[in-house]
Amino acid sequence: MRFEFATATQIVFGAGVLAEAGRLARPWGSRALVVTGASPQRAEALLGHLGKAGIAAEVFSFAGEPSTATVAAALAAAQAAGAQLVIGFGGGSAIDAAKAVAGLLTNSGDPLDYLELVGAGRTLTQAAAPWMAIPTTAGTGAEVTRNAVLGVPGHGVKASLRSPLLLARVALVDPELTLPLPPALTAASGLDALTQLLEAYVCRRANPLTDALCAAGLPRAARGLPLACRHPQDLAARTDLALASLWSGLALANAGLGAVHGLAAPIGGRFPAPHGAVCAILLAPVMAANLAALRARDPQNPALGRYTEVARWLTCRPEATADEGVAWVGSLVASLPVARLAAYGVNPGSFAELAERAQAASSMKANPIALETKELEGVLRAAT
After folding, report:
1. How much is the pLDDT for 248?
2. What's the number of CA atoms in the CB half-sphere (13 Å) around residue 44?
3. What CATH class has 10-178?
4. In this structure, which topology does domain 183-383 adopt according to CATH?
5. What is the pTM of this model?
């Protein structure tokens, strides 16, 4: 048996650890670019901590999910400010943008030069500028992954800028930062974490270390998600979700994902659909499609037993079956404020193209079985 495991140089987790951001970043320099989402006022406490440590910060804020144009603009802002370090403060979008900026500060060229699939696919050769990831949602685990997912205007896709050189120097995870999240965002981001844990556990590249993270994270996600949606100020539930999200990022970065994320990439590239919400509505149909395909074409595949284990963790019933796990996920999603794909404009006329593009997605390569185009179209139909 051989496997590798790589992650952020340092992970700092706990309620209130935001106050340590200045101390942790100060050795990297005195000028920072803080990349954040559409509400930059949420970063005021962070800016205060940085100021106390003698770090002057320029703020770059943007709405929605990052594109190559977003990163180019943020990179220009960092260069104009003479930034020596980068901090991503926000959801996965802000963290991915910060990750890309840190990489491009020390590697010449345009974001498109380094993107997979639609870009030149160049390899980063220089270590990224020092950067810190501070998530304010619990879902993507982007604080500990080595890729930045960017939209590519004109291509209708999302693609990754990927390199081990993009791993954060510090991932600072403070569950208190997620307390203000409304139920809809809590649900979408939390279901993304659950999806990542589940896909990493059943995927082709799972290993003993990622297995342990998934086995610990799935019950926390199942327990914490409904509670955090009903009682947003429940810090214990928020802590469960923050841990599940962190562990999902560690797992996906070192094992892989599957068809949910394989489909989510082209959907997010073509339609104005939030990544977490897309993953949430796709999860149960993909589970069902994988189970049917495995039983029909590869009945000895160990993923079948893994789906049963997942069902028992999610339902807390030692006799639960894989199909009952699918039903549990479907019921959970139905109970939360999660929209179907049709709400974002996805329609039957787009199924064939989305399924074809999904086949080329990097996440699809780790799915426990190769799904046929018609099976992927069936998943889209069930989620629309």
Report:
1. 98
2. 3
3. alpha beta
4. Dehydroquinate synthase-like, alpha domain (1.20.1090)
5. 0.95
